[in-house]
Amino acid sequence: MKSISLIQFLIEERRAGRMNAELSLLIEVVARACKRIAVATNKGAIGGVLGEAGTGNIQGEAQKKLDVISNEILLEANAWGGQLAACASEEMEDPQPIPDMYPKGHHLLLFDPLDGSSNIDVNISVGTIFSVLRCPDGVTEPKAEHFLQEGTTQLAAGYVVYGPATVLVLTFGHGTHEFTLDREVGSFILSRRDIRIPEETAEFAINMSNQRHWEAPMQRYIGELLAGKDGPRAKDFNMRWVASMVADVHRIITRGGVFFYPLDAKIKSKGGKLRLMYEANPMAFIVEQAGGAATTGRGRILDLQPTGLHQRVPVFLGSKKEVEVATHYHVEADAAV
Ligand code: AFP
């Protein structure tokens, strides 16, 4: 098969009228920035990039050096291109405007610059997650409220996994596609087009150590999976948990499965663990475009009206059948109250 680079793929999508020039340039800029983050993460201890940065972020989390480095790489790369009106990041309380000396574009970019950073020092896959929105017409100095758009309005979403291979997975509403970084050439090459997630699966991902804090419907659902073929589901299920959402989702994009970070008594006051704008929404768009499903346990994630830039939500995503069963148990329990 003749190899198709990301740039060629984007040009073909533009010619087919499925995306405009400004958006495809923005995707190229983000992909190029992620190549620089891949170089930084690959250096590990000999690059002096492991360990704590000594600073904290808006989430009250200690920042890793690579959290800060990745954030700066993405901000710097996207400042001068002319495709953006502003950026927002997991690592920054407020949106970052585009410096006045550079032309402004019509897009807003949100990102988790380094997802799974608690895994960096132990050399487990981490990643970057991003989401692209349209900047509301007439808005020249975007504020947080201008980013609070439903996930259904995303123009593009993607993630890069920095693992044994560096892989970019992307959607802009016409299917979900995978590109693998050819380190020799320095280009992302199309490795899978129009990915489909199997509707059925026998593999689930959840942090089991939180079990005692889960709501009753989640206890029931996971209890039935663990009961296996002798239980009500009459099928054995296997479990995986990397604790890097990008890696857990990439496994599901690759071979199916279901991922949960449900609401539990420990995080109830926060509304969940994972962030809506730069974790749940982009992953939901990617998964749905690959034939999967993504809910909060009570409703479709992409239909949520955001209320805050760093808002947290419960996340159920992956193979459609299992997301539907788990969601049904929650909706049914709520109806019975
Ligand atoms: P960090 O970026 O702080 O490591 O958090 C990773 C994450 O947001 C997501 O990638 C994982 O799915 C989830 O948190 C892991 O949570 P637990 O540490 O509770 O397993």
Produce the secondary structure layout:
Layout: H1 6-15, H2 21-43, E1 52-56, E2 62-64, H3 65-79, E3 84-89, E4 96-97, E5 107-115, E6 126-134, H4 144-147, E7 156-162, E8 166-171, E9 176-182, E10 187-192, E11 203-205, H5 216-227, E12 238-239, H6 245-255, E13 258-261, E14 274-275, H7 276-289, E15 293-295, E16 312-313, E17 315-318, H8 320-336
Parallel strand pairs: 3-5, 11-12, 11-13
Antiparallel strand pairs: 1-2, 3-4, 5-6, 6-7, 7-8, 8-9, 9-10, 13-17, 14-16, 15-17
Give a short synopsis of this structure.
The chain is of the alpha+beta class. 31% of the residues lie in helices and 24% in strands. The mean pLDDT is 96.
Please provide a written account of the structure:
- The termini are far apart.
- α2 runs antiparallel to α3 and α5 crosses α8.
- The model has no long low-confidence stretch (mean pLDDT 96).
- A hairpin with a 4-residue loop joins β9 and β10.
- The strands form four sheets. An eight-stranded mixed sheet has the order 4-3-5-6-7-8-9-10, sandwiched between helices.
- With 337 residues, it is α+β, with helices and mostly antiparallel strands.
- It binds 1,6-di-O-phosphono-alpha-D-fructofuranose.
- 1,6-di-O-phosphono-alpha-D-fructofuranose binds next to loops.
Question: Characteristics of this structure?
Answer:
metal-binding; single chain; Fructose-1,6-bisphosphatase class 1; magnesium; binds 1,6-di-O-phosphono-alpha-D-fructofuranose; five-stranded mixed β-sheet; 31% helix
